[in-house]
Write a structure and sequence with these properties.
single chain, 272 residues, MetI-like fold, 13 helices, transport, Carbohydrate ABC transporter permease, transmembrane, transmembrane helix, membrane
Length: 272
């Protein structure tokens, strides 16, 4: 059997790159299960002599479950609202005919060019005026409307042939029924991909909670990890245990939705 040398070299190169990217994650898991005295030993001891599961028990015995619940609540609600709003807006900008549609879409896209940091002060003042400061509702509203999501999903809705829409209208369906039963199923991989991305972005959001939350009992995981690292001082084993606990939902969400992510990328590739 003839061996394709170039393909073999590329495969080996990709395996080495993959291992390099995985090493920090493996070190983090290893450090979370070590006694503090072994965290920075050199050469690195990847497998601890004594597995200290107590590190996780110590982390979870604090207020970590409360912060976890706060992050889950904010992230799930934000993802549902943002995905729904972005999909409906994308459908409107791609399939509904109304005066000024393209001009309005350009205005929406133009807001994407404004750096998020540039509008922090107006947002802060507005939240103070509306009494949304230091509330989870304010944090949810902050990330519930996405120009990127609208733009991304619009490109997929544009690809739906107009004959599908026309056929549904002939059968008596209104626009909401067409959106729900015809358009959404056709672009479901793209919507799922955006939902997973929105979940990851919201779960990892540090800037929003840092600026718009003050009460410790409302803190989300990124804030809690930051404060936990400060309170624990040099206890890196506990900090790593908290960090490993924090990323578990992201891994679970990706494993569940990776099929849709791959299909969404494939759809984008076909569209060119």
């Amino acid at each position: 059997m003839k061996i394709n040398v170039s393909k073999l070299m590329i495969t080996l190169f990709m395996i080495v790159v993959g291992i390099v990217f995985l090493l920090p994650f493996i070190w983090m898991i290893s450090a979370s299960l070590k006694p503090e005295s072994e965290v920075f030993t050199y050469p690195i001891k990847w497998i601890p002599d004594v597995w200290r599961w107590e590190n996780y028990a110590t982390v979870w015995s604090r207020d970590f479950p409360l912060y976890y619940w706060n992050s889950i609540k904010v992230t799930v609600i934000t993802t549902v609202i943002s995905t729904t709003v972005s999909a409906m807006a994308a459908y409107g900008f791609s399939k509904l005919e109304f005066r000024g549609r393209n001009a309005l879409f350009i205005v929406v896209l133009a807001t994407f060019m404004i750096p998020a940091q540039a509008i922090l002060v107006p947002q802060f003042l507005l939240y103070m005026y509306l009494d949304l400061f230091d509330t989870h509702l304010g944090l949810i509203l902050l990330n519930s409307f996405s120009v990127l999501g609208t733009f991304m999903l619009r490109q997929f809705f544009v690809g739906i042939h107009d004959d599908y829409i026309a056929s549904a209208k002939i059968d008596g369906a209104n626009q909401f029924t067409i959106f729900r039963k015809v358009a959404v199923p056709l672009v479901l991989p793209a919507i799922s991909t955006y939902a997973i991305l929105r979940f990851i972005w919201t779960w990892n959001d540090y800037q929003g909670p840092l600026i718009f939350l003050r009460s410790d009992e409302l803190s989300t995981i990124p804030l809690a990890i930051s404060r936990f690292a400060t309170e624990s001082g040099q206890l890196f084993s506990l900090t790593m245990a908290g960090t490993v606990s924090a990323i578990l939902p992201l891994i679970i969400i990706f494993l569940i939705g990776q099929k849709y992510v791959i299909e969404g990328i494939a759809m984008g590739g076909v569209k060119g």
